[in-house]
Structure formats: C-alpha cells, structure tokens
C-alpha cells in the first residue's frame, strides 16, 4: 500500500480482539464492551416500531435531522444548560455520538493543531483526533483519595490548542469534572482561543451524589462549547445510532456541512424513537438505569477490595492497575480471560503514559448476580 500519514499514529481497538477470543461462552463475564442489558425505553421501542410500520422515517430528508427530534434535543439542552438552542441552526443529528466527533474536529481544527484530551480518554476520541490530522495533547488524570482527578496544573501549562475534547463522566476512567475543573478549562480556552468540544454522552450517569455541572453554566464557556450528545448511554439505545451536535450558530454551519458530506442523514425510523425517549414524561428510565449501574459499580469494588481498582465517579466502567500487580495490561487481560473467564480490555490505545498500565472492567452488561464471583475469578487469574 501507499503510505498514508493519517494512520501513522493511529492505534487499533483491542475490544474486538478480546470479544472474539471470548467467543459465545456463557460462563465468560463480558466486561470488555460497552453494551448493556438494561433495556431501552419502551416508548422508544414503540415509536420506532410505529415509524417502521407507517414508513414515516423512510426518507433522505432533512439532512440535519427531523424537526421533531431537533426540537426535543433543544428542550433537553435547555433543561440541562439553561441555553436556548435554535433547533434549525444550532442542532445537527448524527449517526451516533461518536460519528459526530470527526465532523466537529474537521470544522474546528487545522492539520497539526493541538487538541487537548485527558489520559486516559476514550480511544474513539483520541484516535479520531489523529485521523483528522490534528495532534493530541494529553493531560493526565491522577488518582487522589481513591478517585480520578484532573491534573489542573498540567492543564494550565498547555501552551496552545485549537480545541479541548473532554467527557464528564469520562470513558474509561469515570472521572467527573467539578466546577473548579471547568473553570480551569475556561481559562485555557480564553488564553488559547480554543473551542471546548464536550462529549456529554454520560452526563447523568453519576454516582455518590456527585453534582452534575454543565460547562455551559461556567462563565466564559457557553459561547465556546460544542456539545456532542447521544442516545446510546443514558437511554440505552446503542443500536439506534442516534447522536447530535449543538453549539454556536457560526461553527454549527460548518459542522452541518461536514456531517452531511460524511453520512448524509441518520436513520429516520430511529430518530422518531429518539424523540419519543427524549420527551418521555417518565424520564425514559435514565435515573433508574444510573442507580442500577452504581449498584454494579459498587459490587465490582466490593469484590475487588484490596486490589488496585480506582473508584469511578460515574459511567459504565472502572480501571484496574495491572502494573501495580506486576503485570502489563495485555498480560492481565490475557490471564483474566484464560484463567478467570473474564473478558476485559487493556487500555493500550486509550492514552499515552497513564492509560496503558490499566485494564478496563465494564459492568453495563453484567448484573450484580453475575458479578458476585468476580473476586474468585480474579484469584484464579492471578494465582
């Protein structure tokens, strides 16, 4: 093949390799992938089925999202941020949240410009920065008091940036950024002229009473923030592949062009299902699902008490420090599968200095009952 510089630094996912090695053995704990057994909202299923039966979603148009969904997203964002987004000019529907990342990067960065992310971060964010031609600048997360915390000192030393690409709670660590973190982000954005690209896919899946703080509520960030949302995590609608982007009207005009020329349009059938979930008076089960994920998270930590597992502030996963146990992350992942019948992914492609020493344990698809022998499985793996 001819060389292609876009792929020079891109690292492959290991999730599919671990999943393939695990096969279909029902005894294996599936802690490698962000699927979930918590069902999607019944109203979303009913609306999607109705759209299929009636054929209402069988269209190429409108390219940037059905009005009913864009209006539902605008109402959702108004409740979360206090900001009124114009459904036509400031919201664009995408084929899942991660599919929104590349159009946003193409609209906000030039080749070679730095984009700030945390280490660890979601590999789908980090590798897309590289594919876009921008350059990742990784700011470490530190373990303090048993929790992940943003290294604000390192963040404050960022010399230049086109954008900061951040999640809260973040995959894979579950770090939840507090107001002081977002204020530090605002200072960097002000100093460098950067956009904040905020992946809000898990914003309401928080534990232990952590306050949910939208960066749009912090002085200086609302006019710089581009929000990426998704139906996959909070609403458990992974297969729908519906996400969105919302932000200032001027930059959204470019993002819409990039989105249209990338995927043309998200599934119309699924957009009706997403709109039904977002407007469900009962809340689409988001709070109940978050409580279930916390119960699973707490079970994992109780089972692995005494091992180097870092408590998450929210999300669907925790990280275990393989190097603290005298192993590489790849070795621990292999042992967990071969000896403990646990499928878990090494964080090789999820950072630079911090992430590669960790293995991720995802609890979104395994109920508390299945997690109750996690310690015994770890003991078998490490023995």
Automatic annotation (TrEMBL):
Keywords: Aminotransferase, Pyridoxal phosphate, Transferase. The keyword Thylakoid does not apply. Its cofactor is pyridoxal 5'-phosphate. GO terms for molecular function: transaminase activity. Residues 36-364 form the Aminotransferase class I/classII large domain. InterPro entries: Aminotransferase_I/II_large, AspAT/PAT-like, PyrdxlP-dep_Trfase, PyrdxlP-dep_Trfase_major. The keyword Calcium does not apply. Belongs to the class-I pyridoxal-phosphate-dependent aminotransferase family. PANTHER family: AMINOTRANSFERASE, ASPARTATE AMINOTRANSFERASE. This is Pyridoxal phosphate-dependent aminotransferase. It comes from Nonomuraea spiralis.
């Amino acid at each position: 093949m001819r060389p292609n510089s876009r792929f020079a630094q891109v690292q492959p996912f290991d999730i599919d390799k671990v999943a393939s090695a695990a096969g279909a053995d029902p005894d294996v704990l599936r802690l490698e992938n962000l699927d979930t057994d918590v069902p999607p909202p019944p109203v979303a299923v009913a609306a999607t089925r109705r759209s299929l039966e009636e054929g209402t979603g069988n269209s190429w148009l409108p390219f940037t999202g059905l009005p009913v969904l864009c209006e539902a997203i605008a109402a959702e964002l108004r409740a979360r941020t206090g900001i009124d987004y114009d459904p036509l000019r400031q919201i664009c529907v995408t084929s899942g949240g991660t599919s929104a990342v590349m159009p946003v990067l193409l609209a906000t960065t030039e080749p070679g410009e730095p984009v700030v992310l945390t280490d660890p971060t979601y590999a789908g964010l980090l590798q897309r920065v590289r594919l876009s031609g921008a350059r990742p600048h990784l700011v470490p997360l530190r373990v303090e008091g048993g929790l992940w915390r943003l290294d604000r000192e390192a963040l404050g030393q960022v010399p230049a940036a086109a954008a900061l690409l951040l999640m809260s709670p973040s995959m894979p660590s579950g770090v939840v950024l507090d107001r002081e973190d977002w204020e530090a982000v605002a200072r960097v954005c002000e100093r460098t002229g950067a956009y904040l690209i905020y992946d809000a896919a898990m914003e309401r899946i928080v534990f232990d009473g952590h306050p949910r703080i939208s960066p749009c509520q912090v002085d200086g960030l609302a006019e710089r923030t581009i929000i990426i949302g998704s139906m996959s995590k909070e609403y458990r609608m992974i297969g729908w592949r519906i996400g969105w982007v919302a932000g200032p009207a001027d930059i959204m005009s470019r993002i819409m062009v990039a989105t249209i020329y990338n995927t043309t349009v998200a599934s119309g059938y699924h957009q009706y299902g997403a709109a039904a979930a977002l407007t469900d008076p009962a809340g689409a089960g988001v709070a109940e699902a978050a409580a279930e994920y916390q119960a699973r998270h707490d079970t994992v930590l109780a089972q692995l008490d005494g091992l180097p597992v870092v408590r998450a502030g929210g999300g669907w996963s925790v990280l275990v420090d393989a190097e603290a146990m005298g192993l590489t992350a790849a070795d621990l992942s292999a042992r967990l599968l071969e000896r403990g019948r646990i499928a878990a992914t090494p964080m090789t492609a999820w950072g630079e200095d911090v992430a590669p020493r960790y293995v991720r344990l995802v609890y979104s698809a395994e109920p508390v009952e299945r997690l109750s022998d996690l310690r015994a499985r770890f003991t078998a793996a490490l023995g």
